[in-house]
């Protein structure tokens, strides 16, 4: 089992930046990828970005490409989401999701609020 805990959310102005962290614990050696998703008010949860745990390759949703950067620090078992050029439409609850290579299990954090004002 893997546990993930998000931190770093909060309030930012449009054009500003925030950095989210996702700290993983437990059976880290089973990690395949870590993803960020977000859920905007009244909408479904959407994929934002992904990083493969071993190789470090990344993928992004078109809506955040060139503005957000996902990275990892294997020594701290932590994944970061650097969010730049924030827009009001980035306002959402952001969730960290760990996917394991054994059985493809998904583990979710509790979510963290990001609010961007215009």
Compose a concise summary of this entry.
By secondary structure, the chain is mainly beta. It has strands at 2-7, 10-13, 18-26, 31-39, 45-52, 58-60, 68-73, 78-83, 92-100, 106-108, 112-117.
What do these coordinates show?
- This protein has about 120 residues and is an all-beta fold.
- The chain has no helices and 11 strands.
- The strands form 2 sheets. Strands 2, 4, 5, 6, 9, 10 and 11 form a 7-stranded mixed sheet that branches. A 4-stranded antiparallel sheet has the order 1-3-8-7, with no helix packed on it.
- It is globular, with a radius of gyration of 14 Å.
- The mean pLDDT is about 95.
Low-confidence stretches: none
Large-scale geometry: globular
Q: Major sheet: size, sense and barrel closure?
A: 7 strands, mixed
Kindly state the number of beta strands: 11
Radius of gyration: 14 Å
**Backbone structural class:** mainly beta
Element-by-element helix/strand order = EEEEEEEEEEE
What characteristics describe this protein?
118 residues; mainly beta; 0% helix
Layout of helices and strands:
Layout: E1 2-7, E2 10-13, E3 18-26, E4 31-39, E5 45-52, E6 58-60, E7 68-73, E8 78-83, E9 92-100, E10 106-108, E11 112-117
């Amino acid at each position: 089992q893997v546990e993930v805990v998000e931190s770093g959310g909060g309030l930012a102005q449009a054009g500003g930046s925030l950095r989210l962290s996702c700290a993983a614990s437990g059976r880290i050696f089973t990690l395949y990828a870590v993803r960020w998703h977000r859920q905007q008010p009244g909408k479904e949860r959407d994929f934002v970005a992904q990083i493969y745990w071993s190789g470090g390759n990344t993928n992004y949703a078109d809506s955040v490409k060139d503005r957000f950067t996902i990275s990892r620090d294997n020594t701290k078992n932590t994944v970061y989401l650097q969010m730049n050029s924030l827009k009001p439409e980035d306002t959402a609850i952001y969730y960290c999701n760990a996917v394991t290579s054994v059985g493809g299990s998904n583990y979710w954090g509790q979510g963290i609020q990001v609010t961007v004002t215009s």
